[in-house]
Amino acid sequence: xxxxxxxxxxxxxxxxxxxxxxxxxxxxxxxxxxxxxxxxxxxxxxxxxxxxxxxxxxxxxxxxxxxxxxxxxxxxxxxxxxxxxxxxxxxxxxxxxxxxxxxxxxxxxxxxxxxxxxxxxxxxxxxxxxxxxxxxxxxxxxxxxxxxxxxxxxxxxxxxxxxxxxxxxxxxxxxxxxxxxxxxxxxxxxxxxxxxxxxxxxxxxxxxxxxxxxxxxxxxxxxxxxxxxxxxxxxxxxxxxxxxxxxxxxxxxxxxxxxxxxxxxxxxxxxxxxxxxxxxxxxxxxxxxxxxxxxxxxxxxxxxxxxxxxxxxxxxxxxxxxxxx
Length: 325
Prior knowledge:
By secondary structure, the chain is of the alpha/beta class. The chain has nine helices and 14 strands. The protein has two domains: 6-154 and 298-321, Rossmann fold, CATH 3.40.50.2020; 156-295, Rossmann fold (3-Layer(aba) Sandwich), CATH 3.40.50.2020.
C-alpha cells in the first residue's frame, strides 16, 4: 500500500457522500489518509444539507460519489459537495464517480428525448469541479460532454486478474451486444480466448430479444462481459440463448451492479453460474447471493488519485490491456 510523504499527505483531501462510504474509506486507507469530516444529511423537508467540518483552503480535493441506487439524491449531494468545496477555497476539485449515472441517456435516439448525460456533465462543471475521474463509462463519447479534463479508467485489470486465477478452460468471451465488442475484445486478448457476440433487438428500456449468436459457443465455458446490469432481463435472456446454443458454464463479468427491481431473483433462477461485479456500487444485504462475487476497485481508483495529485500520467493504468481512453 502506498503511503504519501507527510507534506503531500497534508495537501490531499478525500471527501465522500452517502452513496458509497465503504469504497470511500477503502480508497482513503489505500492512500494512507483519513476521509475528511463532512456532514451530509437532510433538512426536515428533504433538502440536502452539507458542511465540510475542517479547513480545506488551498487543498487538492477528491470527492467520491457514485450516482447510483438513489441517483437523483446522490447526484444532488455531489453537486452540493462540489459547491461547498469551491466556496471553501479548495485549490482543485476532482469529482470521482466510480459509477456515472444517467450514462445510458447519451444520445438522441428518439424524437423529443433529452441527452441527460450531457446535462449531468454540465451540472458537474458548473458546480465547480476542475476535473472528473470515472470508470467504465457506458459509452466513451461521454468524456466529450465535459469541458474539463476527464480520466476514464477501466476495471479490466481487476476483473481480468480474478478470471485468470479461476483458470477457466476452453473459454470464450461474449459481448452481449454489438456496442460492447471493443471491451469484449480486450478481455479476449487478456484471457487469450476467442470472441463471440450476442445479436439482440431492444424492444424498450428494459426488454430485449436475442436474434442470433455470432461465433461458436457450443461446448465452451462462456464469459459474458458488459459495463452494467440493471434489471438483468437482457443478461438472463442472453445466458439462456447461450445455453440453448450449447454453452457449458456461464460466467458474467459486469462492472456496475445496479441490480434494480427483479434483478436478484432473475439471477438466482438463471443459467448464470457466477456474476462478477465491482464495488463501484455497494450491494446491500438484500442483494447478496452466493452467485454474486464483488471485487474491489479501491486500489485502481486510489492509484489514479495519487497520480493525479502528483501530476503523473494516469493512462499507464489501462494502456497495457489494449483499452485506451
